[in-house]
């Protein structure tokens, strides 16, 4: 059984310049407020790259999220306010980014999505500003 790369549950934390590979999740964040995830590599994790549960005001910026399995690149559940920007989201088995039930007021912009198996949000939200994203899938 695999463990998680980084477990995070705190206030105003910054996760910066890490490489998390071959874990269950690269980072598992829950019940946090105002965390930043910047300049990390989350690659080849079994369950997914970044899992965020019940966390508010998240900033996910300039990360490489590649070749993660099962649930995909970035999974957010029950989060209020956040931004996902300037990330490379490549070749994940599930969604590149998933915003599940209870997630509101997220802005997703200027990311590059390449060849994720399923490459859209699980639930569409009116508050998502999809500006400047690049989506590529070879079957399009």
From TrEMBL:
Signal peptide segment: none
All copies of domain Right handed beta helix, residue ranges: 12-121
UniProt cross-references to SMART domains, sorted A to Z: PbH1
SUPFAM superfamilies: Pectin lyase-like
Protein name: Right handed beta helix domain-containing protein
